[in-house]
C-alpha cells in the first residue's frame, strides 16, 4: 500500500496534468470556438498541452 501511494505522489504532476489540465484546455478550446490544426480534436490538443506542461514538471520536480 505504501509503495502504491509513493508511486502516486511521485507521478503527481502527470496525474494533475491528465486529470485537470487536459480537460481544462479542451474546454477552453471548445468555449473559444477555436479549431485545432491538423484535424485534431479539442481533447487531443488538450493532451498535447497537458503533456507539454506535465512532463517537464515531472522531470524537474517543480512547476515553476
Structural account:
This protein is mainly α and 64 residues long. It contains 3 helices and no strands. It has helices at residues 2-10, 12-32, 42-60. α2 packs antiparallel against α3. The radius of gyration is 14 Å and the shape is elongated.
Concise overview:
By secondary structure, this protein is mainly α. The protein is built from three helices and no strands. 14% of the residues are buried.
Descriptive keywords:
3 helices, mainly alpha, 64 residues
Task: Write down the secondary-structure element order.
Answer: HHH
Q: Give start-end ranges of low-pLDDT stretches.
A: none
Beta-strand fraction estimate? under 5%
Q: Cα-atom Rg, whole angstroms?
A: 14 Å
For the biggest sheet, the summary is: none
Q: Tell me the helix content.
A: over 70%
What is the mean predicted local confidence, pLDDT? 91
Number of helices: 3
Q: What is the number of beta strands?
A: 0
N→C terminal distance:
30 Å
Shape estimate: elongated
Derived from helix and strand composition plus strand pairing, the structural class reads mainly alpha
